[in-house]
Amino acid sequence: MKISCRFLGILSFGRRLIFCILPALVWSAAWSLRAEEFFNFAEFKAATAFTIPRDETEKEKAVSGNAGLRLSFRDADFRGYVSLPKTELKQIDEAEDFSEKLDLLDEPRLGVGLYLFKKTFPTAIKIGHNSFSKSVARMKNPAPAATANPLAKSFAFSTGFGAALPTLTSSRQPVSYSICARTDEKIFPVQFGAEGFFNEDKECAGCFSAKKDLGRSVFVQAVLSIGRFYIEENLKILKKNNADFKADFFNVWLSEFCLHSPFLKLNFHSGIHENPYQVNPFWFKIDGRTSFRALLVNFSYFAIPTTKDSPKVAPLIGSSGITRTVEQASVNPQILFLFDDRNASSLRLGFAVLENWKVTATNTPVQLNLAKVRAAASYESRFFDLRLDWTHANILLDGEPPTNSARPEEYYSYAASSSLAGKAAKISLSGSYTNYPPLTGKAMLKEVYSASAKIAVPKANLTGQAGVDLTMKDGQRHAGEINAGVSYCLKRKYFRSSMKIAVIVPF
Questions:
Q1: Is the dihedral of CA 474, 477, 480, 482 positive or negative?
Q2: CA separation for the pair 42, 502 (Å, rounded)
Q3: HSE (CB half, 13 Å, CA atoms) of 162?
């Protein structure tokens, strides 16, 4: 079988992409004489992964990949990416002509960003298959994350719509149009901002913000948002609990406020969600951080006070699905030791406890009280770092799961990671072990092993990595995968490029 025939579908990435954004290329060429003033860089990215079964009795060899081009100007950003989903090589061979091979590709992801009035009213306009986060994510589903990072360093007030142009690996989103404008903080004593977006699915949202600096790293900020999102009724569990409804658009109101100072930081979020149950659920979340010398404490609390007035199966429902967490609290003390040496060494110790109440996704929904406990230690210096983690998760404190499948899978996890940076290269190693004790006497003991290694050579612009994942049940191999890859990055004044190729071998 000829290689040129097998990989014609992969090579078509670049061709299709060039045709998609050819107008942008022509426009950039027209301005080539004034590149110093208007043009920043062109960037081409590509990544390909080959899946190779361990023997011929299993599935056919497959390939997947992404490729795309970005053109960055002083006041504009053009992007276009295409993807080949995981496809067996024989499918590429069986495609009779070039057009059939192109049909194997996903639809392209395109985006354009315009940046105007940078010195007075900085404004960003983004059009394309863009993604949204931050406040939009809270309006779609306010459920808090349950990660409980014991060594969390950042504490930010992350609001706004977070409109982001497509990237190499982003999923294809509905076509949307967004605008974000704010006043320059150097001109006005209070920084005001406004954002808005709507997409081809007729969803839309808008927000207004105000920020006031009070001096000495102290500021307050308030944000008000309203959105209109489409909620579908496609879950059988709702019908079984007499909670089904007609799909429609529903409004969401969101308010966010923060007070940040060197000694105390508080973020407050609250929302009201219009829904089909003649009850408008209300939720709120408080995040805080306080510090005194080497001691730092993070704390958080989330609750839906209107749970008793909503259907038990759906305490709150949004466009991203049902919010099953009805209450959650966490606390995370940390202590930092700084060493007076030439390597700027430090040691950070952290402990995190998280408790929540969640509604099960079962025909007879019940609330379960779960807990997660994590501890970690991290040593960092200019050339070497080491981190150790321990986790005990899905601890059932209260409630009786209606079925065995609804019982949380309790587990213990141990992980370690380290890196060593030298003049020529940086080496990173990581590994983890997870133990799932049997839920019943007849259940199997499940164990998951994972290990990876990475070496980066900055001067050669090369990075190589390899890893292995293995799942064992009662001492027998249940699933496994070996992966290895290499990437090359090139950076010049007007051109950037990154190429990555990986091989995946299931066993």
A1: positive
A2: 24
A3: 12
Residue 18 has pLDDT above 50, yes or no: no
pLDDT at 349: 98
Helices (H), 128-230: 135-140
pLDDT digit string, tens, across residues 321-375: 999 999 999 999 999 999 988 888 999 999 999 999 999 999 899 999 999 999 9
Ranges of H-type helices in 167-265: 236-240
Q: Residue 383, SS3?
A: coil
- Which H/E stretch holds residue 274? none
Distances in Å between the Cα of 155 and the Cα atoms of 120, 259, 385, 389 are: 29, 12, 22, 21
Rounded to 5, what percent of the chain is helix, strand, coil? 15, 55, 35
Return d(Cα 400, Cα 411) in angstroms, integer. Answer: 18
User: Which residues partner with 231 through β-bridges?
Assistant: 248
Tokens found for residue 485: 């890859």
Cβ pair 92, 12 in contact under 8 A? no
Dist CA 108 CA 81 (whole Å): 6
Strand runs labelled E in 241-345: 248-260, 264-273, 282-292, 295-303, 317-318, 321-322, 325-338
State the distance between the two ends of the chain, measured CA to CA, in whole angstroms. 25
Number of C-beta neighbours around residue 131 at 10 A: 19
Find, among 473, 488, 482, the residue nearest to 442 by Cα: 473
Which tokens is 194 given? 């406004």
Give pTM, 2 decimals: 0.88
CA–CA distance, 456 with 486 (Å, rounded to integer): 10
Q: Are 494 and 42 in contact (CB under 8 A)?
A: yes
Of 465, 463, 434, 467, nearest to 449 by C-alpha is 434
Rg of the chain (C-alpha set)? 26
Digit-coded pLDDT (tens) for 296-321: 999 999 999 999 999 999 999 999 99
Q: Which pLDDT value is given to residue 341? A: 85
Let me know: does 117 contact 25? Beta carbons within 8 Å.
no
